[in-house]
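User: GNAT family N-acetyltransferase. Structure?
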Amino acid sequence: MELYIKELKTEVDWSLAYPVMHELRTHLSEKEYINLMHEMADENYQLFALIDDEKIQSLAGVTIRTNLYALKHVYVYDLVTTKHARSKGYGEKLLSFLEIWGREQGCTNIALESGVQRTDAHRFYEKKLGFDRTSYSFRKRL
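Assistant: Predicted structure:
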């Protein structure tokens, strides 16, 4: 069985990925998720899957953005590895792929946010992958 990464571009692909994405985005029904995927795809959101043993093991939802502080960069909105496949290096492989892909797209940085409660994820990003914790993110419901 071969491990590979591919972009998921179709509604069929997105449906196959839903059980994994739902582990991260538990508040979304499959219908809500599919509807949002269509909207986000129109805004250049791309979903990449790491597949091993013909099963989606990990997902990364990204877009390329440009702003004054991060310049042209890959922004990771969603990153999840299915519960039964954690600690197998899948997240690291997927982020390493995105770093190479981002450079090929002309990006100078890769950025992501992580919920304040996800201390294990923060340790993974900082210690294992070399990410710097550079800011806090603030949000206000309208």
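The CA atoms of residues 23 and 83 lie 8 Å apart. The chain has a mean pLDDT of 89.
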